[in-house]
Each structure stands twice: as C-alpha cells, then as structure tokens.
Amino acid sequence: MSDGHGSSPDTPSGWASNQPPPYGGQGPAPWAAPGAGGTPPPPGPPPQQGPYGRQPPPPGGQPYGQPPPAGQPYGGQPYGQQAYGGAPYGQQAYGAAPGPYGYGTPPALKPGVIPLRPLTLGDIYNGAVQFIRDNPKATLGLSAAVAVALQVISLIITVVVLGSLAVTLTEMITSQGRSGDPDQVLAVMGGAIAGVFALVFVTLVIQMLGTVLLSGMLTSVLGRAVFGEHISIGEAWRLTRGRVLPLLGLAVLSAVMVYGAFIAIFFVGNVLLAVLIAANGPAWLAILLFIACLLGAVVVAAFLYTKLSLAGPVVVLERAGVGAAIGRSFHLVKGDFWRVFGILLLTAIVTGLVGMVMGLPFSFAGEAISPADPLTGLPTGIAGLTLTGLGGIIASTITYPFSAAVTALLYADRRMRGEAFDLVLQTAATDRGRGLGTSPEDLWHPSHAASHQAHGYGAPQAYGHPGHGAPPQGPAQGYGGPGQGYGGGYPPQDPGQGYGHPPQDPGAWPR
User: I want to staple 490 with a disulfide (CB 3.0 to 4.6 A). Which of 50, 254, 357, 485 is the partner?
Assistant: First the structure.
C-alpha cells in the first residue's frame, strides 16, 4: 500500500491509516506490527514532561495508546514503583511552587463556642469568653441574680451580728460600775468572737450553696453552647433542678475531703511542733517542721482539689451520683494532672485579679464613708458595707461564669483526649445540623464515648482523619497500598489522567 510518496508496509489490522507517530518521536517513522523483526529506529531525545498531570511516555519507544507487550504492566512502569525523578504522590516536586490544592489539614468543625477537637489553653479561654458573649442573659444575668442574692443575705447577717455586738458593747461601757469588770469584758469579747466565727461560717455555707447552684446551671447552658444552641434561664433551671441535691452533696463531701485533709496534716504538724518545743529542741528544727507541715497540707489539699475539680460537670452533664462523679473525676484527671492543675491555678489567679481590680474602687469608697467609731456610726457603716458588696456583685457577675465555663470546657477536653469524644461531638453536630441525632443532654453520657482508649500517637488530626492520629492498620488499608489500585483493587487507569492519579509508591505518603 502506498500514498504516492514511496512504498511502506501495509497497515496492520486494527490500526488506523492515519495513526500518529510514537509520542515524542522525531518526524514520521515507518509503522511496524507489534513483535515484527527488523532494525529498530534510532532512539529520539528523552521525552519531555507534558502538561500538568500528564505522565511521560513509556520507555522503549512504546507508542502512546498501544497495548503493552505481554508481561509488562500498563504504562511500562510496574505499578507501585516510582519512576526515577518523579515526585511521590502528595508531595511537592523540588523547586516547584505549591499548588492551591496541596496536602493540608482542614479546620476542625466548630458549631459552637469551641472547635470539636482536643483543646489548647487558648481554645478554653476563648471558648469561655465566647460562651459569655453568646449567652449574656443565661450567664451574666444569672450570675448577677445569684450574686445579688448572696450579697444581700450576707449583708443582713453582718448587720444583725455587728448591730447586736455594738449594742452589747455600748451597754457595757455606759452602764455604771460594769466597765471595769474583767469577767464581763471577757464574756462580751468571747461572744463577739463567737459571733464573728458564726458569721463567717454561715456566709461560707450560703456562698457555697449559691456557687454550686450557679455552676450547675452554667454547665447546663454550656452543654448546649458547644453545639451553638442557646437556652434561657428557665430552661437551664429545668435541666439542673434534678441535680441540685447531688451537687450539694458533692460540694459538702469535697469540702470535707479538701479542708479535712489540710486541717488534719496541719494539726499533726502542730502536735509534733509542740512536742519538739516541750523537749527543748532547736529552734531551726521547729521552724523547719512548721514549714514542712504547712507545705504538706497545701500540697495535699491542692492535689485533692484538682482531682475533684471535674466532678461537678460529671454530675450535671453525665447525670451521675456523688460517688460515681468523684471516681469519674479522678479517672479523667489521671494522666494529665499537671495540665489540669496549671489551668485551674491560672484561672484562679486571673479571676482573682479581675475581681480585685473591679471591686477595689467600691472598697475604697466604702472605707472612705465608714465611720471612725463603729459603735456610734452604724448606719454609715452599713452604707460602706453596701458599697463594698456592690463591688463584689459586679466582680462575681464576670468571674463566676468564666470560672464555670473553664471547668466545664476542661472536662470536655479531657474526654476528647482520653476517650476520643470529639468524634462523637462531630458526628452529633453534623446530625443536629440536619435536624437529626440525639439530644445534647444524652450525648454527654459516657456510653457515647467513641473509645475508652486514648488517641493514637502523633499530633491530633482534623475532622475526617481516622483514628485521630493513629497509624494505618495494615498495608492493604487506604489507597496507596502496594499492589492495589486506587479505590480498593480497581486496575490502574490511563497514566495521562493527571490530577487524581493513584500514588506510585506506598512509602511516599507523609508520615
């Protein structure tokens, strides 16, 4: 067969008469049937890289699109091996500019006040502030109401006790013949001291009740705020009222454990100190013993306080009893004690400084109008106490919800780190966005934990990565495994498909 420009072999069966020359060849070349003898044409220059995503032609001058010889994989390169000089799949070639679709970590899902992944200190504090901003009525309003009630009750008790003491002292001083009686003076002073202690005790009990109730309601609000939902004060009370008694029991038991341990260690130290002094021991040893006992009591109290710090959110969100909540809090803090302790300590310092700065002007104003003689200027003294209490109300309105939010978010962070609870929250948030899923009050139950094991090694990955940082479970899992095509066993596709071509080397994935 000839086209008028010389003779050439007949076109093989199955080939088009206008078949193009081999890819990368120089000029026209005579056609030959596969496997035919003869002298092969001289090799042309090495093939150049085609457009983005195009693969170079197979070696040996194999025409592009021609079926490979028997025993040779499609494309001339054994599948699963990287051609020399080629960049591994998912990695940027040397010297090339990064593309817009490089391998990266997508942001974590954030439907509410926090991203649904293990939290950093900044995430916890930002979430606490965002929690207050997004729910001003249920946080600032509720805190202000509780703070006002506590301050009013404390002010009434203070006025009653101080007023009674002032009347007694006035009668003793003005009564003829009684001012010099030592027994009478001691009795009055003893009554005054007992009254002050009773005042402090009752005030602490009332503040504990109010703080426990407020913390429980704020935790209920935060349980919804994680999903971006808002509830009213009435709904927060409806969610919390069934947990008031367990919260009170937890508060009493926690106070007994923390303060009891402190007092017991300090008491034992004082007994040893008294024995040492009675035995005429050296003064330096007595001072050293006192300091050691004081530090030991502080360390034990701080340890117990940290271990019990997450029991409140457990009672409210997991609907647990007092004993179960204490055990659960010990379990959650285990393995990350120093981080939990550091965040709680920093929060106490921050809230203390903020409260002092906000209440200091009112304290100065109250001191300025207080009378020099409290026995003759009781009304003015009450006005000074009222101003001081007003500063306390303003400070408590800000610091109470922040402290409660930090504790609850720290509880959520410990569950996400220790139980992969972020996967549960991500799934629930996605379902609730479609109007499906479980109620948020039920999701916090420990039975919904994705796993009771900690996250795998490595930094936490973003939403969508299996195992949250865990390594692959086998060579055949995931795309890129040796001997498997993209998508689990499908044959490799045309090497010129470009973007989305399967990886050439299973070891080329970033680890």
Answer: 485
- Are 365 and 182 within 8 A, CB to CB? no
Note the pLDDT tens digit of each residue in 108-124.
788 889 999 999 999 99
The pLDDT of residue 488: 41
Centre a 10 Å sphere on the Cβ of residue 90 and count the other Cβ atoms it contains. Answer: 12
Amino acid at 97: A
The answer, as to whether pTM is greater than 0.90, is no
- Largest separation between any pair of C-alpha atoms in the chain: 149
- As a whole number of angstroms, the distance between CA 500 and CA 483 comes to 18
> Contacts by 478-485 with C-beta closer than 8 Å and gap 24+?
479/503, 480/89, 480/506, 480/508, 480/509, 481/506, 482/80, 482/506, 483/79, 483/80, 485/79
Written in H, E and C, the secondary structure of 372-394 is CCCCCCHHHHHHHHHHHHHHHHH
Type of residue found at 345: L
Concatenated DSSP letters of 82-144: PPTTPPPTTSPPTTPPPPTT-S--PPPP-SSSS-SS---HHHHHHHHHHHHHH-HIIIIIHHH
How wide is the angle at C-alpha 354 spanned by C-alphas 147 and 357, nearest 5°? 95
Identify the sign of the CA torsion 125, 130, 133, 139: negative
With H, G, I as helix, E, B as strand and everything else as coil, classify residue 438: coil
* Amino acid at the residue 298: V
How many other C-beta atoms are found inside a 10 Å radius of the C-beta of residue 461?
A: 18
DSSP 303: H
The pLDDT tens digits of the residues spanning 290-318 come to 899 999 999 999 999 999 999 999 999 99
